[in-house]
Design a protein that fits this description.
binds 6-O-phosphono-beta-D-fructofuranose, 374 residues, seven-stranded mixed sheet, alpha/beta, 11 helices, four-stranded parallel sheet, elongated, single chain
């Protein structure tokens, strides 16, 4: 049996750990060979094909390494490939299927986020034996409780919040940290809670200024002259729209929400504010222990599925269990923070963190204890 593997979309910590698990389990347990496809699906679309056999020696020391040894791209849709100089997108799916056959592959493990998995689900219909592994620092993929890369990004963002605290306190400043996550606030809320932020603004809750200003004023009244604000890149004011940074080649790129919040807060409070944009630091470097473990468990399960020729499945985390679900459960919907059921949203507001809205749970007056006599 020959198993192909590729990594697609934006990179994240843990991709190499998944590749390592696939190679070790496929070769060690089943004696199967593994072929790494380079730069997402691109390695199969063009000639010469870009692929290489992956042996045990190729995955030595890979567990802890960031990025992906196979390379990746978020600009390679085989059904609508945009080529420089060509007026309209080209359908290169036929060339991809031919490439898959030329390599003699029995199945293809696709490690990717929503865009990549959507393409993968379409490749099932053109005869490719696909099994998916979910990854993205944004943690916004439907069907799974967690994706590879999220835990590491949260750790990095948490470290940033904690480090901003001392400098904010020394200068009596408002420190704003902009984090990634596209239109989901998972990274922002997790890092805000873990780092002790006072205000966290997420795309799921378009914010009002009043509760944010009230929070900063309340801190001041307690002698806390600094505040820590985490802003998700997709967060925006009520009635407003997300901020986009310089758009190159017509593409839209989220960015600028942190700078906007810092400027407004400074103007509205009279307190100096500074902004830090964490950017791709969140995606770089060695994966956390949790991501290494998750990627390993996902990789092993994916190999078992391919060997059983159980295609069209995505490996997911449900509670503590690694299971697999049909593609439709993963590609069927984006998974933002669940505002009604998320224990994190409830906990954040219960401890007085402002999410830019009037908290769902109001302060309650406890009944005075009745005197017991005599
Ligand atoms: O989806 C992962 C992610 O890191 C988002 O959080 C972010 O908005 C985007 O990718 C950045 O993409 P790029 O690497 O193309 O700048």
């Amino acid at each position: 049996m020959r198993i192909g593997i590729c990594t697609g979309g934006g990179d994240c910590p843990g991709l190499n750990a998944a590749i390592r698990a696939v190679v070790k389990h496929a070769r060690g347990t089943y004696g199967a060979s593994v072929v790494g496809i380079e730069d997402s699906f691109n390695g199969l679309m063009f000639r010469p094909l870009r692929s290489r056999e992956l042996d045990l020696g190729d995955v030595t020391d890979l567990l802890t390494r960031g990025g992906t040894i196979l390379g990746t791209t978020n600009k390679g849709d085989p059904f609508a490939f945009v080529e420089a100089g060509k007026p309209s997108p080209q359908d290169l799916s036929r060339a991809l299927v031919d490439g898959y056959r030329e390599l003699g592959l029995d199945g293809l493990i696709v490690v990717g986020g929503d865009g990549t998995q959507l393409i993968a689900s379409r490749l099932l219909n053109v005869g490719i034996g696909i099994v998916g592994i979910p990854k993205t620092i944004d943690n916004d993929l439907g069907g799974t409780d967690q994706t590879i890369g999220f835990d590491t990004a949260v750790q990095i963002a948490t470290e940033a919040v904690s480090r901003l605290q001392s400098t904010a306190e020394s200068h009596d400043r408002i420190m704003v940290l902009e984090v990634m996550g596209r239109d989901a606030g998972h990274i922002a809320l997790h890092a805000g809670l873990a780092g002790g932020a006072n205000v966290v603004l997420i795309p799921e809750i378009p914010y009002d200024w009043d509760p944010i200003l009230a929070k900063i004023a309340a801190r001041k009244a307690l002698g806390r002259h600094f505040s820590l604000v985490v802003v998700a890149e997709g967060a925006h004011e009520k009635g407003g729209r997300p901020n986009y940074a310089t758009v190159s080649g017509g593409a839209k790129r989220l960015g600028g929400s942190g700078a906007y919040v810092a400027e407004e807060l400074s103007a509205r409070t009279g307190v100096e504010a500074r902004v830090t944009v964490l950017g791709h630091v969140q995606r770089g470097g060695s994966p956390s222990a949790y991501d290494r473990i998750l990627a390993t468990a996902f990789g092993v399960h994916a190999v078992d599925l391919v060997v059983a020729r159980n295609f069209g499945r995505v490996v997911v985390l449900r509670g503590q269990a690694v299971v697999d679900v049909p593609y439709s459960e993963v590609t069927g919907g984006h998974r933002p923070l669940d505002l009604t059921a998320s224990p994190l949203v409830i906990a954040a507001e219960a401890i007085g963190m402002s999410l830019g809205r009037e908290p769902a749970t109001k302060k309650v007056e406890l009944p005075k204890p009745s005197r017991r006599g005599p």
